[in-house]
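We store chain and fold; example below:
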Amino acid sequence: MTFPAKFPSLNETSFTDRARTVLIRVIRVAFPHAKVPDAPYERTADFILSEAKASNWFRVSMTQGLNSLDDLADGDFCHLDDERAYAVLKDIESTDFFGFIRRTTVLNFYDDPEVWAALGYQGSSFEHGGYLHRGFDDLDWLPDPRIEEYDGPEEFVAFAEKPGDPIVALPTDTDVPDSTQPAEPPTGVPDQVDGEMRATLSAEQGPHQGAAQAGRSTETAGVR
């Protein structure tokens, strides 16, 4: 690959119709899609040429690269079959010329709505309110999901409340206290203390605070 500084006259190089035709063929061989029509390939080629015009270096590299393909094809690159044309591109895949074509094609060819339609992509869903009512489940190459209730035996899965905690088994029905039955009095509270004098444990009290309150109530009752 020669540089513009070495051949200043190349700075006046302009792309010809022949160069555009060869470039379209290059893109078609490098990114083959039988269902994609010619228009997206042509638009991509035009975009590549317009981007190359912004830089003398890229413009000269593109011109020389496209011209060299005919020499590598022993005559006419566009008349080669796909297999032979692909072999020619493999020989130049490490060049800056082909690298520029590859990068620009990937970013622009697959951003063409006509290519989306040919490949089955529906495009962005955000501006249409999402995929919920736009065929989120219209794939015909996936099996239908199994939708049925599980009627086998109950199984309890071990769990941990937070990372690092030991795994404990879920409680069985026999381990869960019956909330419909009155709770037993806290241990450590004298039996002679009746319900009115027993301290009530509130959400803001700990068990020790409730016991202490009960003790003071008992002492007060004795003094009187």
